[in-house]
Specification:
The protein has 216 residues and is of the alpha/beta class. It has one domain: Alpha-Beta Barrel (TIM Barrel), CATH 3.20.20.70. 48% of the residues lie in helices and 16% in strands. It has nine helices and nine strands. The protein has helices spanning 3-13, 25-37, 52-63, 77-85, 98-106, 118-127, 137-149, 169-174, 193-213, and strands spanning 16-20, 42-46, 68-72, 90-92, 110-112, 114-115, 132-134, 158-161, 179-182. A nine-stranded parallel sheet has the order 5-4-3-2-1-9-8-7-6. α2 runs parallel beside α3 (52-63).
């Protein structure tokens, strides 16, 4: 199965991306197990975490056939190769760097760059991005997202990330985003595993309930 197919399958099941910022290799497997049990099929380890490639390697070896494992906060093209060497197949960035997108495509990995404006969005699409990360979503707002979606290619995966919570999740889903990314309201370094499980279960349930309510 290609990384792109795995990505499409994962977001069809539950299009929520846990942003594991600050996770350590010692926590990685236990947190991934909890996320998988809650229905998550994607996870990203941000590269500003301690020993991120070790965490990605552990997660990919244990869950790579069941989840799409990748890296976030990828800022340079040379980091893409390191993520792939660790077993990751997803590259997520806070910015739109054509060199990172090109390297990701060249390695048959999934590219999800960060964009804020229509100009950045179309530049990312032309560079070969598989989807877009609207970041920071709280600054863009649902009304602006709706306007952007009116001109973006139909069916392009679009994730709202940054400031998303159960309080505004419905607002973003209602205007047409594919999915969302959750960070500190799902995982924080040192968080109790029971709290991760409770949050993951609640967020997955909230997504499914809202999606059902809006008919998506």
């Amino acid at each position: 199965m290609t990384a792109e197919t795995a990505f499409r399958n994962a977001i069809a099941e539950l299009p929520i991306v846990p942003v594991l910022r600050g996770i350590s290799p010692e926590e990685a497997l236990a947190v991934t197990e909890v996320l998988h049990e809650a229905g998550f099929r994607i996870a990203e380890v941000t590269l500003n975490s301690p020993r991120p490639f070790d965490s990605i390697k552990l997660m990919a070896e244990a869950y790579g056939t069941r989840m799409l494992i990748g890296a976030g906060t990828v800022l340079a093209a040379e980091e893409v190769a390191a993520v792939q060497s660790a077993g990751g197949a997803l590259i997520v960035s806070p910015d739109m760097n054509p060199a990172v997108i090109a390297e990701t495509r060249a390695r048959s990995m999934v590219s999800l760059p960060g964009v804020t404006t229509p100009t950045e969005a179309f530049s990312a699409i032309r560079a070969g991005a598989h989807g877009l990360k609207l970041f920071p979503a709280e600054m863009i707002g649902p009304a602006a997202v709706k306007a952007m979606l009116a001109v973006l290619p139909k069916g392009l995966p679009l994730f709202a990330v940054g400031g998303i919570s159960t309080k505004n999740l419905a607002d973003y889903l209602a205007v047409g985003v594919t999915g969302v990314g959750f960070g500190s309201n799902l995982y924080r370094p040192g968080i109790d595993l029971k709290e991760v499980r409770a949050s993951a279960t609640a967020l997955a349930a909230a997504y499914r309930r809202i999606r059902s309510d809006i008919g998506g």
